[in-house]
Structures are given as structure tokens and as C-alpha cells.
Design goal:
Largest sheet: 8 strands, mixed
Structural class: alpha/beta
Shape: globular
Number of helices: 9
CATH architecture: 3-Layer(aba) Sandwich
Strand content: 5-15%
Order of helices and strands: HHEEHEHHEHEHEHEHE
Number of strands: 8
CATH topology: Glycerol-3-phosphate (1)-acyltransferase
Oligomer: single chain
Number of domains: 1
Distance between the termini: 70 Å
Helix content: 40-55%
Length: 273
């Protein structure tokens, strides 16, 4: 039966082409991960490990450059997605950054934006060949205190105060996993206990529509959506840990309210207490 609706015909033709485009560009992006990953390890990471004292700092910087390259390709291959990065993101230092989590792209975005960064990763990643070595030397924290990871977690937490004071950033996703419903999930309190221990300031960041580029559960990057990916600072929390130390639950409540858009107590959602 012939198609009598030009718009329907156009959509039917575009859809297969969109899937093919997504397939081939996804393959190219994974090739970058493998090819550029091997290149970076041989040409940059290994010399940094051998010749530099502060390996951790060097590895953090290399991680950032590697994922900047990856996201540059994502933006090149999928120009239909506009990227809006809050300028305040680049001025963040010496803070714990609290983010929502909607896509596998979220941690890559944060690593690309911050040259001095650590994060909390699944214990499985520490056991992977090469990648496990990279996350260990980078000083990333395991998401558990059990078994052989106990000493590693304690060591990194003990060094965190000095790391933050030196301008470093610890970014975390307190939901613990990607949220596939688009709603904010329940938070884990561990990071807020670390914030109290380190007497750290917190910056709350909202990431929107990264799941429209790379959706949870999908192998392919999307060429069909035209949503803008937005990364913006929605608030900051600067407690007075000496005169009025907050509980971990209080810090959690404030971060949740900022991400949910329900907190307007202070100008630009900056809270001092």
C-alpha cells in the first residue's frame, strides 16, 4: 500500500537511518575507548607512573583529558544534542560535589570537567585488568569497606581533608546507581559522614538529559532525541563545623531539597550555617 502522508514517509525513512547512524557512531566511540585507551596507557600513564612522584595527581589529570576527548567526539557525532555547562562548574575547588545520576555519561562528564577529581567506584572495577590499576593509582575510593577494600577506603578517607584543602574535588552520586525513572532516588549517607569528618563544603550539581544521549540499559547512543544536556550548580552548603556542626542527615536533607528544586532559603541556594 502506497504511503499518502509525506510526513509519515519521511519519519519511516529517517528512523532506520538514525538507527544505523547510532550503531556506527557507537562503534566508533567504543573504538576510541579501546584504541585511545591503549595509546594513553602506553604513552602517558606508564611514563607518569615511572617518572613522576605525584602519580595520583598526574593520573587524575590524564583521566580528565581522556574523557574530554571522548565527550568531544560525542558532541561531534551527535550535534542534535546541545550541551549547556554551567560556568560555575569550572570554578569549583576544595569541595565535595553531590550529583544526581541518570546515565553512565554522568561520571565521565564530571571527570572531564575537573582536572583534580576523585570519586567512589564499584569494587568490581578495582579487579579489572589495567582499569583496576588506573583507578587505584588515581586514588579513587571503593564503594565498600568490606574485605580487602577496608584498608584502601580508610587510607583514602584519612587523606581526603588534605586533598580537598589542596584544591581537589570528590564528586559522588549518593543515589548509588542510575535512576531510570527520572525521579531522585534515595540517598546513601556515607558521603555526608565523610563531609563531616573532613569538614568539607558541598556543591550540589544537577545533570539533566544525559540519559537522552545514552540511556540506561541501551548499548547505542541516541541520534533521535534533540534534548539539551544540562549540567548546572543548583546550590552550595558551607557549614560552620566548629560552632554548629550539622548531622549527616541534615546535610543529606539540604542536598536533596536543592536537587529537587524545593530549597530557596538563600540567594542562589547558598546556605551558611
Amino acid at each position: 500500500m502506497a504511503c499518502t502522508n509525506d510526513t509519515s514517509c519521511n519519519k519511516a525513512c529517517v528512523r532506520p537511518r538514525g538507527v544505523l547512524y547510532s550503531f556506527f557512531t557507537t562503534l566508533l566511540l567504543w573504538c576510541y575507548f579501546l584504541g585511545a585507551g591503549i595509546f594513553f596507557v602506553l604513552v602517558f600513564y606508564l611514563p607518569a607512573y615511572v617518572f613522576f612522584r605525584n602519580r595520583e595527581h598526574r593520573f587524575e589529570k590524564l583521566n580528565s583529558h581522556f574523557f574530554r576527548g571522548f565527550l568531544w567526539l560525542v558532541r561531534l557525532f551527535f550535534p542534535m544534542h546541545q550541551w549547556q555547562i554551567d560556568e560555575k562548574m569550572r570554578r569549583i575547588k576544595s569541595s565535595i560535589v553531590i550529583c544526581n545520576h541518570v546515565s553512565y555519561l554522568d561520571p565521565l562528564i564530571c571527570i572531564a570537567l575537573f582536572e583534580r577529581q576523585k570519586t567512589i567506584v564499584k569494587p568490581l572495577f578495582f579487579s579489572l585488568p589495567v582499569f583496576g590499576w588506573l583507578v587505584r593509582v588515581s586514588g579513587y575510593l571503593p564503594a565498600t569497606t568490606r574485605g580487602r577494600f577496608s584498608a584502601m577506603m580508610i587510607e583514602q578517607v584519612e587523606k581526603m581533608s588534605d586533598y580537598l584543602a589542596d584544591g581537589g574535588i570528590l564528586f559522588v552520586f549518593p543515589e548509588g546507581t542510575r535512576n531510570q525513572q527520572g525521579k531522585l532516588g534515595s540517598f546513601q549517607q556515607g558521603i555526608f559522614k565523610i563531609a563531616r569528618l573532613c569538614q568539607a563544603s558541598l556543591v550540589v550539581v544537577k545533570i539533566e538529559n544525559s540519559d537522552k544521549v545514552f540511556a540506561p540499559g541501551n548499548f547505542l547512543f541516541s541520534a533521535s532525541s534533540t534534548e539539551s544536556v544540562r549540567v548546572r550548580v543548583v546550590g552550595s552548603i558551607r557549614p560552620d563545623y566548629t560552632a554548629n556542626p550539622p548531622t549527616a542527615a541534615t546535610l543529606e536533607q539540604m542536598a536533596v531539597s536543592m536537587l529537587a528544586g524545593t530549597d530557596a532559603a538563600c540567594p542562589e541556594n547558598e546556605q551558611h550555617f
